[in-house]
From TrEMBL, chains A, B, C, D:
Keywords recorded for this protein, A-Z: DNA-binding, Repressor, Transcription, Transcription regulation
Protein name, per record: AcrR family transcriptional regulator
Every HTH tetR-type domain range: 16-76
Signal peptide: none
Pfam families: TetR_C_24, TetR_N
InterPro entries assigned to the protein according to its UniProt record, in alphabetical order: Homeodomain-like_sf (IPR009057), HTH-type_TetR-like_transc_reg (IPR050109), HTH_TetR (IPR001647), KstR2_TetR_C (IPR041490), Tet_transcr_reg_TetR-rel_C_sf (IPR036271)
The keyword Transcription belongs to this UniProt entry's keyword annotation: yes
Record feature DNA-binding region, as residue ranges: 39-58
GO function terms (MF aspect): DNA-binding transcription factor activity; transcription cis-regulatory region binding
DNA sequence: CATGAATGAGTGTTCATTCAT
DNA sequence: AATGAATGAACACTCATTCAT
C-alpha cells in the first residue's frame, strides 16, 4: 500500500467517521427534543462546534434527518429480510421479527424515536417518500405474516388482522421512547417478555381443563 | 330578564363557545402537524381568522396547548376515578380503565395525540408540570393494579411489572394516532379486542383436553 | 357608496399605496447599492421599519425586484406600443422611442438602473424569464426599425445594424445611472441632444456643399 | 547558476504566473456573475482549487478585485497618456482615445465589466479611492478634449459638453458587456464604426447640392 | 371580535476568512 | 501550494406576539 493510497483512505475514513459522529449527535438531539423543536445550533452545541460548521458536512438539517432515517431503515430491512428468507413458521418468524426490531431499537434508538415521532410530518416532503414506502412494506409484511399464522393454526382467527398489526407495530416501536441501552433489561429480555405478552397474554393461565371452573 | 343581562349572558356563553371551537381547531392542527411545527397562523387559517385575532381569546400558543391538555386530563382522570372507586377485581378494573382510555381517545383524539407526542417536550416547562404529575399518578395506578392482579391470581407473576405497565400504557395511547371516530371499529370494539390481546394473547388456544389429541 | 364599500376601498387603496411606497424605497436602494449587495435590512431601514416587517407586504426580496421590474417594463412597452402603432417614418419612430425611453428613465429611474445592472444575473432564474423575452422583443424592434430607416433612405447603410442597435440601446439606458430627475437637464432635453448625436454626430457640419472640399 | 538560485527564480516566477492565472479566472467570474454575487468558492471552483487555498495567494476577495482593477487602469492610462502626449488635433486625439479604449476592452474585458458594474459600489471603500480619482481624471480629459475640439471648429458647439462626455464614456465602456474577443467584429472594427457614429451620426447624409431636390 | 401592520427574537443557511496539517 | 475543518458574522426569512383601529 503506497503512502499516497493510505493517506487517501485515511482522510476518507476520517471524514466518514466525523460524519457518523455528528449524525449520532444530531440523532440524539432530534430524538430528545423533537425534529422541529431542535435548532441546528442545538445540534452544533451538542457536537461542540458552531452552527454554520455543520454545513461543511451536511447540506441541510433535512439532509441530516434523511441520512439518520435511511441508514436505520436500510439496516432494519436487511435484518428483516434475513428472517423472512429463512422460511420459518409464522410463529418463529414473528419471534424473529420482534427480536430484530428490538435489536434495531438497541442499535438505533434515536433514529427509531425520530422515525416514530416525525415520520408522519416528514413524509409530506418528496425527499422522504421512502418513509411511506417503508410503512407500506411493513404493513404488507405483517398482514401476510399474521394471515399465515392463522392459516397454520398458530394465531387466533377471531381478531381483526389490521388491529393486531397496529397493536404489535406500535407496541414494539414506541418502546424506543423509554428503552435505555445498557439498562436493567436488555433488548433481548424485552423482546422475550413482549413476545410472551403478545402470544399468551398477561392473564394467568386458567386452571387446567381437568379442573373445570365452577361458576 | 333585562336586555343588558341577556346580552351579558349571551356574550359570556358565546365567548366560551367560541373558545371551545377555537381550541378544537387548534387541537386538530397541533395533532396533525405537531405542536412545534404548527404556526399560530395555521391555527388561525383553519379557524378562518387572522393570526393576531387568536390573541383576543388566548394568551399564547402555549396557553392553547395547556387548555387542550388539561381539559383532556381532567376528564380522563375523573373517569378513571369512577372506575377505581368501584372497588372491583383487578381484572375488571383493568377492563374498565382500558375501556375508559379508549373512550377518552374517542372524545379527545387530538388532545391524546398531542399528549402522546409532545408531553415529553412540553413537560420541561414549569407550566406543564401537571403532565409529569399525571404520568407519575398513571404509573402508580397501573403498578398497583398489576400487583393487585398478581396477588389475586388473575395476572401472571412471571412478567416484569414495569414492562407490562409500559406495554399497556403505550399500546393504548398510541392508538390515538390511527383511530378515527366513526370509522369501521368503534372505540368499544377496539377496547374489547385490545383486552383480548392483553389478557389472552394472540396465540391460538391449545386444544382442550376434552378433545384429546390423537397421537 | 355604502360606508362598508368605502372602507373596503379605503383599506385596499391604503395597502396598495403602502406597497408602492415600500417598492419605491426598495428600488432606490437596489439601484444605488446593487441588488445582491443590498440586504433586506437595508431596505427596511430606508423604509423606517424592521427587516421582518417587509415580509408582511412581500413574499421575498426576489418578489420585490420582480414587481419593480415588471411594473417598469409593462409601462415602458405600453409607451413603445403607442409610438409604434402610429405608423410613422423610421426617423420619427426613432425619435418617439428615444423620447419615451428617457421618459421611462425619468419616471422609473431606479427600476431602469436595476434592469441595466442586474437583469443578466436575475434572468438566470425562472421567475425572471420575462426579462429575456423583453430583451428579445427590444432587439427585434430596433433591428426592424433600423432596417426600415435604411430602406427609407433615412439611415446610413454602411453601419452594422447589430452594432447600431447596441449602441443606441446601451447609450440610452446607461444614462439612467447618472440622470437626476429635476436636475439641470430634463429628460426631454437629454432626449433631444442624444437624438442630435445619434442622427448627426458630434462633428461640426462640413462646409456646405456649395463649397466643395478641396482634398 | 546554483540550483538554489534557479529554484528561487523559478518559484518567484511561477508564483507570479499563478497569481495572474488566478486573477484572470477571478475576473472572469466577477464579470459574469457580479462581484457581490460571486463567492470565493465559485472563483476557487473555476480555478480548480478549494476556497481556502485562494488565501495563500491573496489577502482577501477585495484584494483580488483591487488588483484586477488597478492593473487594468494602470495599463489604460498609460495608453491614454501616449495618445495625449502626441499633441494631435482634438479629432485625432478622440480617435486615438476611443481606439485605445476598445483595445483595453479587448485585453481586459472582464476587468472593464467589473469597473463598469461595480465601481460605484466599490468606490465607497477607502481602498478603492483610486477609482474615484480615475473617474475625475477621465472626466477632465474628455471635457478638455471636447472643448479643444469646439475651439478648433471640429466639434459642434451646440451640444452640452457634460452630456457629450457621458454619452461617449458610457457608450464605449458599456460595450464591454457584449464584446467578445475573437468574435465577428474586432475591437478595431467596432472602434471605427463607433467613431463614425459619434462623429457623423447614423443619419444618411442629405443629398449633395449637385443632385438638387425637385420641389 | 377581528383586522392589519408592525415587532424582535430566532431559524436555517451562506460565506469570507483562518489555520493546522 | 493546497487541503479540510472550522469560525463567526451576516443573511433572507419566519413566527409568536402586540396594538391601534
Amino acid at each position: 500500500m503506497s503512502p499516497r493510497r493510505r493517506d487517501a483512505e485515511g482522510t476518507a475514513a476520517a471524514r466518514a467517521e466525523r460524519r457518523a459522529e455528528l449524525l449520532a449527535t444530531a440523532a440524539e438531539v432530534f430524538a430528545s427534543q423533537g425534529y422541529s423543536a431542535t435548532t441546528v445550533r442545538k445540534v452544533a452545541d451538542a457536537a461542540g462546534i458552531l452552527g454554520g460548521s455543520l454545513y461543511y458536512h451536511f447540506d441541510s438539517k433535512e439532509a441530516m434527518a434523511d441520512e439518520i432515517l435511511s441508514t436505520f431503515l436500510d439496516e432494519m430491512w436487511a435484518a428483516y429480510e434475513r428472517v423472512l428468507a429463512a422460511g420459518l413458521s409464522a410463529r418463529d418468524t414473528l419471534e424473529g421479527i420482534v427480536a430484530e426490531s428490538f435489536r434495531s431499537i438497541d442499535r438505533h434508538r434515536p433514529a427509531v424515536v425520530i422515525y416514530q415521532n416525525e415520520s408522519k410530518h416528514l413524509a409530506t416532503s418528496e425527499r422522504f417518500q421512502y418513509l411511506n414506502e417503508s410503512r407500506r412494506r411493513f404493513q404488507e409484511m405483517w398482514l401476510s405474516l399474521l394471515e399465515q399464522g392463522v392459516r397454520e393454526g398458530a394465531f387466533r382467527a377471531d381478531l381483526d388482522p389490521g388491529l393486531v398489526y397496529r397493536f404489535i407495530r406500535d407496541t414494539v416501536w414506541v418502546a424506543a421512547n423509554w428503552y435505555q441501552p445498557g439498562g436493567r433489561l436488555s433488548a433481548d429480555d424485552i423482546a422475550k417478555q413482549y413476545l410472551a405478552m403478545f402470544l399468551e397474554g398477561i392473564q394467568a393461565s386458567p386452571p387446567t381443563s381437568q379442573e373445570p371452573r365452577t361458576s
